[in-house]
Design a protein that fits this description.
By secondary structure, the chain is an alpha+beta fold. It has a 3-stranded mixed beta sheet, with no helix packed on it.
Length: about 160
């Protein structure tokens, strides 16, 4: 069985006896405290967002970046995002949040534009694949012509096999 990660982002203080905002827990026997390899199928992570109090200049790890972002989601604008938070995943999350906040008219426009972009992407991918295929054929023909010249064969005597 593949290990499962269970991540709980808490907007309140759950573990009130400590200042730690991040902890990883596992399953163990309550009575003996023994850990069993058979129960090592999941890790439980708890992130208490309200306990995180680092200033932006002290944000270093990816976890710090995400907590900083999540604690102030409404304040973030992707065009004015601090360099400390400029991660592709965070920017994608801001885009998703913006999309979720569209009204019906904006959503319809967005969906229509998305279909157009997907269509353009497909056309580009097809063109790239065809160009790559054509380039391989042209290269093979040039190599074959070169071989014909090297072996003093007629120009129309060559065989091309392309594998990919």
């Amino acid at each position: 069985m593949r290990k499962t990660l269970i991540i709980s982002l808490l907007g309140f203080n759950y573990f009130t006896n400590e200042k730690r905002y991040f902890r990883c827990c596992c399953y163990k026997d309550f009575e003996t405290g023994e850990l069993y390899p058979e129960l090592d199928f999941a890790d439980l992570y708890f992130v208490e967002l309200k306990k995180f109090d680092k200033e932006l200049k002290h944000v270093i790890t990816m976890l710090d970046r995400w907590i900083t972002f999540l604690n102030k989601v409404p304040e973030h604008d992707k065009d004015k995002l601090s360099t400390k938070l400029q991660e592709a995943e965070i920017i994608q999350t801001i885009n998703t949040i913006e999309t979720l906040s569209f009204n019906a008219k904006e959503r319809k426009y967005y969906e229509r534009e998305k279909k157009v972009m997907i269509g353009r992407y497909a056309v580009i991918q097809t063109a790239v694949a065809n160009a790559t295929h054509q380039t391989k054929i042209a290269t093979a023909i040039e190599i074959a012509k070169g071989l014909n010249a090297d072996f003093k064969m007629s120009d129309n005597l060559f065989c091309i096999s392309i594998y990919y």
